């Protein structure tokens, strides 16, 4: 008994009896926690590399020894972070400054500072900075239009801004897809009946000029919609609400400026229905692009960009649009794995190659003028762009050397303000009877080179020289000689300020004029001709880089291999060969194609000896990775180094390479961190830190400035060193096959040469700072829909002449040691398993030395891919974050597969050893593995949960035992 506060007594409280239901619940809960702990730890181990990257935590440290010497192979150019950041911001802003393209101007631009302006459109407060997915931009540090315009000396209407930002207009925002392709695209401009009286009244106070900002975005894994909305407009046409807004601006303002904050070519013909005084294309902004827009609008910067795409009045008019979208075979159940396909039925006539070639055929009388009217087809040609000043060209000359032509033009600034001009040089090859007989198609004109002037003051002149390689004279002859040839006939080199002007100059040199159907007379003085007397089938039939013969590598990639009735678009009969639309369910895959789409396990090579592992080569002694810094790719020292590793180490190095590459302890090869970001090193997909966010690649290409592209690569390198991100999944060099590809913002252009030169310059700049680049997506991945396993059918001439140069130049001219294989098929074969592409072209013809990584391969849905088949073809590394995925059985580890793993590990090791991942690691140093903080946290959580479970189980079991004994005593009593 016990005493109460009042002095009484109270019975002692007995513990509440633990019933069977509660006891069972505790046991079940304990079991669940244990199982959850086991599963959680299992997944943490499977994805440990990805988790470490996401959290930005290192898994290794370098330990130096005395006498190691300086092992900083790649260093920053700056002594302090403030100067480094200032440089990055300058590069980013300069890209927009030179990429912004003036399309129309009746003298309204530039605006005077100090005036009052109204920014119209929801895009003013929610602009397009980048795009969705890998090319997305961290907007937390981005400059907005309000701050940029204010800094440039313009007074921005605050009432209208607040209306869009937080008021009634804030409910309307453009719809875009997320980083993983989920969602949809919609313009969602603010309807006129939503505008408040206060917002409309403010227009009278800030009425010196209206700046109407129109936005269109794009993203990964989803293309732009081509279907019309409820008002009859496609995504690349002005929406009904935008038209109403333009009418509002026309009615209320004397000066109306349209700013296209758009990634894809928007149809702009209807702007003529409104009182628009000037139109600027600015593309995505990146982190600082809004500053450049304000500088251009106020004249601090004279725009010098030029379009990298054709702007057609009808965005659906290109022949490539006949086969764009989601198409599946009619016999879906019979087609193994992914059953989607796409036919490049337009052949070489993509982008300006179609619009300009058909125009020439009208002028030459080969096409009925009533069938094609260039003036109503094309609003702005490829390469078009205006300036605030005027330029005059003179002194056109062409000098010939053994392997190139040097085209020179004297450019003079005849206007009133300083500015930059672009000299564009184009080539026309002869279209001959031999071509017609052998199925070779020829564009009437193709970009051959370009150069941008320095900033020319009024009255100043500069002689610009553009080097044109002679190998551009070659065309691929698939069915005749099976290699590159140069036709007999006349070859024209013409300069122009856009592709159409250059073609008109060629036609003028041929003696044609407006009397023959030309829209304007050309200038024959800016065209030069050279003649080959006979067909040359030998000069271009071997690689200049490797000396290897160039032969057919894509015999089964064209749809004609499986459909004998198919014909590609031909300039011999435009209407009669217009691409057949292989619509959804319209094509039944023949058995030959079904069979070809199966995974084919490579045959075992009977002559292969099983590689030696875990052994020190006596000729070299014990090696470390640092000892091979700068070693040639073909050196036998690599075999000796890799022979010290175990098969398990090399297999994991090759198989588990998503957003990181694994270290190999036995050879002291460091692990690396790799991130996405064509617009700059990005944390969007895998966390960690981001670097500077640059304008999208399309804006960089619009600068036509290779030196600026190289500076961007250098700036990426600065972030690479600072952030410890040695690998960069970029640049992206696929083409703008149609205006509606969702990822066009992330790619440079519709032209392979412009794309290739830009990519090469970026690669060269990044490589100088030790960045391991991965040029992507190699190749024929020019739309987002069905890029997972979709069979892309294109003929060999089209693949080689139109799409591959954008990848070839980053390798041959930029020195790229990394490539990312696309996820699609070429013909029936997954790209990564296509030996003709991965080895025949990339390595044997272009001389590539480095690593080819797959695109995303961390999920088992990629069942059309195969590790063995990919390794045999020349793919080196799997972008895989799952430590268990793609694992081969012991039976699969044949001598041939082991050899292929060693070859792939050689590629990876060579790339890593020549990157800034080696910084700090001298030949005598060593790498120690470090347990990252998150793993210590996991261990602590394991301990806490385990102790908690043990405590619960112990307490519950003890209670049950006590209760049972008590019950037994009671019964005995």
TrEMBL record:
Record keywords, A-Z: Hydrolase, Membrane, Transmembrane, Transmembrane helix
The organism's place on the tree of life at top rank: Bacteria
Presence of the UniProt keyword Membrane in the record: yes
Listed name of the protein: Glycoside hydrolase family 3 N-terminal domain-containing protein
Taxonomy of the source species: Bacteria, Bacillati, Actinomycetota, Actinomycetes, Micrococcales
GO molecular function, one term: hydrolase activity
Source organism: Demequina zhanjiangensis
InterPro entries referenced in this protein's UniProt entry, alphabetically: Cellulose_deg_GH3 (IPR050288), Fn3-like (IPR026891), GH (IPR017853), Glyco_hydro_3_C (IPR002772), Glyco_hydro_3_C_sf (IPR036881), Glyco_hydro_3_N (IPR001764), Glyco_hydro_3_N_sf (IPR036962), Ig-like_fold (IPR013783)
Keyword Metal-binding: no
Family statement: Belongs to the glycosyl hydrolase 3 family.
Domain Fibronectin type III-like: start-end pairs: 421-499
UniProt cross-references to SMART domains, sorted A to Z: Fn3_like
């Amino acid at each position: 008994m016990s005493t109460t506060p009042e002095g009484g007594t109270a019975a002692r409280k007995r513990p509440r009896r633990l019933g069977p239901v509660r006891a069972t619940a505790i046991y079940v809960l304990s079991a669940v926690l244990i199982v959850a702990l086991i599963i959680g730890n299992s997944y943490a181990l499977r994805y440990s590399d990805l988790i470490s990257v996401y959290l930005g935590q290192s898994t290794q440290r370098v330990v130096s020894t005395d006498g190691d010497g300086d092992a900083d192979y790649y260093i920053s150019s700056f002594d302090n972070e403030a100067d480094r950041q200032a440089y990055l911001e300058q590069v980013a802003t300069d890209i927009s400054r030179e990429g912004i393209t003036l399309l129309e101007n009746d003298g309204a631009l530039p605006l005077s500072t100090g005036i009052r302006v109204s920014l119209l459109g929801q895009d003013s407060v929610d602009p397009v900075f980048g795009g969705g997915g890998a090319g997305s931009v961290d907007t937390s540090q981005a400059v907005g239009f309000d701050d940029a315009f204010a800094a440039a000396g313009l007074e921005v209407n605050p009432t209208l801004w607040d209306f869009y930002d937080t008021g009634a207009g804030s409910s309307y925002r453009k719809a875009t897809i997320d980083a993983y392709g989920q969602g949809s695209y919609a313009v969602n401009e603010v309807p006129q009946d939503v505008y408040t009286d206060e917002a409309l009244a403010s227009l009278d106070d800030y009425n010196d000029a209206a700046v109407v900002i129109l936005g269109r975005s794009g993203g990964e894994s989803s293309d732009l919609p081509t279907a019309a909305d409820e008002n009859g407009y496609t995504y690349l046409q002005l929406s009904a609400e935008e038209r109403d807004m333009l009418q509002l601006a026309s009615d209320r303002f004397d000066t109306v400026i349209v700013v296209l904050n758009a990634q894809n070519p928007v149809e702009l013909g209807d702007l003529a229905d409104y009182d628009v005084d000037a139109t600027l294309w600015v593309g995505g902004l990146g982190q600082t692009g809004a500053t450049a827009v304000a500088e251009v609008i106020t004249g601090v910067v004279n725009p010098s960009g030029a379009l990298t795409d054709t702007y057609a009045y009808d965005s659906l008019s290109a022949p490539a649009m006949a086969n764009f979208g989601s198409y599946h075979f009619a016999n879906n159940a019979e087609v193994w794995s992914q059953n989607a396909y796409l036919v490049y039925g337009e052949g070489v006539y993509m982008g300006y190659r179609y619009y300009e070639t058909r125009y020439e055929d009208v002028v030459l009388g080969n096409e009925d003028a009533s069938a094609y009217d260039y003036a109503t087809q094309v609003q702005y040609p490829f390469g078009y762009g205006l300036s605030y000043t005027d330029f005059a060209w003179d002194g056109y000359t062409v000098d010939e050397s053994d392997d190139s032509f040097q085209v020179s033009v004297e450019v003079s600034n005849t206007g009133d303000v300083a500015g930059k001009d672009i000299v564009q040089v184009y080539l026309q090859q002869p279209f001959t009877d031999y071509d017609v007989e052998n199925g070779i198609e020829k564009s009437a004109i193709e970009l051959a080179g370009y150069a941008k002037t320095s900033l020319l003051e009024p009255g100043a002149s500069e002689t610009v020289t553009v080097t044109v390689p002679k190998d551009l004279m070659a065309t691929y002859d698939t069915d005749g000689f099976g290699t590159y040839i140069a036709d007999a006939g006349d070859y024209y080199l013409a300069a122009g300020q856009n592709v159409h002007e250059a073609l008109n100059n060629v036609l003028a040199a041929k003696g044609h004029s407006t009397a023959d159907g030309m829209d304007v007379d050309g200038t024959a003085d800016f065209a030069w001709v050279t003649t080959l007397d006979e067909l040359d089938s030998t000069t271009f039939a071997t690689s200049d880089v490797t000396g290897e013969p160039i032969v057919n590598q894509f015999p089964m990639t064209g749809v004609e291999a499986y459909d004998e009735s198919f014909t590609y678009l031909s300039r011999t009969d435009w209407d009669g060969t217009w691409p057949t639309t292989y619509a959804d369910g319209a094509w039944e895959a023949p058995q030959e194609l079904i069979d070809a789409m199966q995974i084919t396990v490579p045959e075992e090579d009977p002559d292969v000896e099983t590689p030696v592992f875990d052994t020190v080569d006596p000729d070299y002694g014990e090696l470390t990775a640092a000892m091979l810094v700068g070693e040639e790719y073909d050196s036998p020292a690599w075999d000796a180094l890799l022979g010290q590793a175990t098969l398990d180490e090399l297999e994991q190095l090759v198989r588990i390479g998503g957003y990181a590459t694994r270290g190999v302890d036995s050879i002291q090869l460091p692990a690396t961190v790799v991130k996405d970001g064509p617009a700059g090193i990005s944390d969007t997909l895998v966390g960690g830190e981001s670097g500077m966010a640059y304008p999208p690649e399309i804006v960089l290409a619009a600068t036509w400035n290779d030196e600026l592209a190289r500076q961007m690569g250098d700036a990426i390198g600065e972030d690479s060193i600072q952030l410890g991100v040695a690998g960069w999944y970029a640049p992206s060099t696929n083409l703008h096959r149609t205006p509606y590809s969702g990822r066009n913002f992330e790619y440079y252009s519709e032209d392979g040469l412009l794309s290739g030169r830009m990519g090469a310059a970026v690669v060269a700049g990044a490589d100088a700072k030790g960045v391991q680049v991965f040029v992507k997506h190699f190749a024929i991945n020019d739309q987002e829909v069905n890029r997972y396993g979709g069979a892309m059918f294109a003929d060999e001439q089209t693949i080689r002449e139109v799409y591959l140069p954008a990848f070839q130049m980053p390798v041959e001219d930029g020195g790229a040691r990394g490539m990312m294989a696309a996820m699609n098929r070429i013909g029936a074969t997954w790209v990564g398993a296509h030996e003709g592409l991965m080895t025949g072209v990339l390595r044997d013809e272009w001389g590539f030395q480095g690593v080819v990584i797959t695109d995303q391969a961390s999920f088992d849905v990629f069942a059309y891919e195969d590790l063995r088949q990919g390794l045999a073809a020349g793919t080196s590394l799997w972008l895989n974050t799952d430590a268990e995925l793609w694992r081969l059985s012991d039976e699969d580890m044949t001598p041939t597969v082991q050899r292929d793993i060693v070859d792939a590990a050689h590629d990876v090791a060579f790339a890593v050893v020549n990157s800034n991942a080696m910084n700090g690691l001298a030949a005598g140093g060593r790498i120690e593995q470090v347990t990252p903080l998150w793993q210590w946290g996991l261990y602590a959580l394991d301990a806490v949960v385990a102790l908690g479970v043990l405590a619960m189980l112990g307490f519950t079991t003890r209670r049950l035992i006590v209760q049972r004994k008590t019950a037994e005593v009671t019964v005995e009593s």
